[in-house]
Amino acid sequence: MTLTEAALDAAAAALRTAHDRGVPCPPVRDQLGIDGTDVATGYAIQERNTAHWLGAGRRLVGRKIGLTSRAIQTQLGVDQPDYGMLFADMVYSDAEPAPAGAVLQGRAEAEVAFVLGHDLSMEQPTLLDVMRAVDHALPAIEVAGSRVDAWNIRILDTVADNASSGIFFLGTQPTRLADVDLRRCGMVMTRRGDPVSTGAGAACMGNPLTATVWLARKMVEVGRPLLAGDVVLSGALGPMVGVSPGDVLEARISGLGSVRAVFEPEASP
How is 38-76 classified by DSSP, letter by letter? Predict the structure, then answer.
């Protein structure tokens, strides 16, 4: 089925409206009348909204990598990760309170974030290129969100929806790559002291740096290379957990320290 530009524009607009109003929309695949396996169509819709938001004044500060888990890839019928855009208004520092409605249908996961000191604009960036470009690593909690009702997503839906991006929290103690074993670093995330998710660096495509090499190559391929100062959310280290107003989550990652995600309670009526 050949989709018209108008159909793609309408799908992008539906996701933007869900984002702006905080009300989920039907799956993109249903809006388009297709089966939801077309990754290229998902990115075509995502790019429309990226261009729209940049034109509206949002500032691009990095990228996120999603679907780094083999189990989730299998569930969605794909054999590679996906990516989404990170904007400045999505960033929170350690324990900075986020409004109760900051993320639609939020789900949190602990990750390693990389901050780049050099551009990765060369053709086919290698692992060595990525390691040289990374200035430091930080612990992070990404709170993914979905503009699609009830997270009823296939690969087209999540890619179109900016890889189900929401907000993210960054720790404040930078660590050099030489000072941490990213493959073996263990992670524990707690909710008010109770463990809710555990994992390790190896859960992210074997090593968070491996995921970042994939991203660097993909960004060159699509004409939006990673640049100095960009932050990369490299992918989940363990299972994601739902979040609610008033929650306080803390992720501790061996060798990187900790970061807290704090959500304001809902306002009283």
Answer: -HHHHHHHHHHHHHHHHHTT--EEEEEEE--SHHHHHHH
Distance CA 138, CA 233 (A): 10
Task: Provide the H-helix boundaries in the chain.
Answer: 5-21, 28-32, 39-55, 70-76, 127-133, 155-160, 208-222
Torsional sign, CA 31, 62, 151, 69? positive
pLDDT at 268: 63
The yes-or-no verdict on residue 178 having pLDDT over 70 is yes
Which residues does residue 262 pair with via DSSP β-bridges, in sequence order?
97, 248
At 212-235, the pLDDT tens digits run 999 999 999 999 999 999 999 999
Measured CA to CA, the distance from residue 219 to residue 59 in angstroms comes to: 17
Name the burial class of residue 215, with classes exposed (0-12), middle (13-18) and buried (19+) by CB atoms within 10 angstroms of its CB: buried
Check residue 79 and give its pLDDT: 75
Name the 3-class secondary structure at 6: helix
* Tokens matching residue 101: 């409605």
Q: Is the pLDDT of residue 5 over 90?
A: yes
Q: What is the pLDDT of residues 181-213, one digit of tens each?
A: 999 999 999 998 999 999 999 999 999 999 999
Q: Find out whether 239 and 197 touch, Cβ atoms under 8 Å.
A: yes
**C-beta of residue 202 within 8 angstroms of C-beta of residue 181:** no
Q: Residue 222, class by beta-carbon neighbours within 10 Å (0-12 exposed, 13-18 middle, 19+ buried)? A: exposed
Q: How many CB atoms lie within 10 A of CB 195?
A: 9
Phi, psi of 70, rounded to the nearest 5 degrees: -60, -35
Question: In the predicted model, is pLDDT for residue 71 greater than 70?
Answer: no
Residue 108 has φ and ψ, to the nearest 5°, of -100, 145
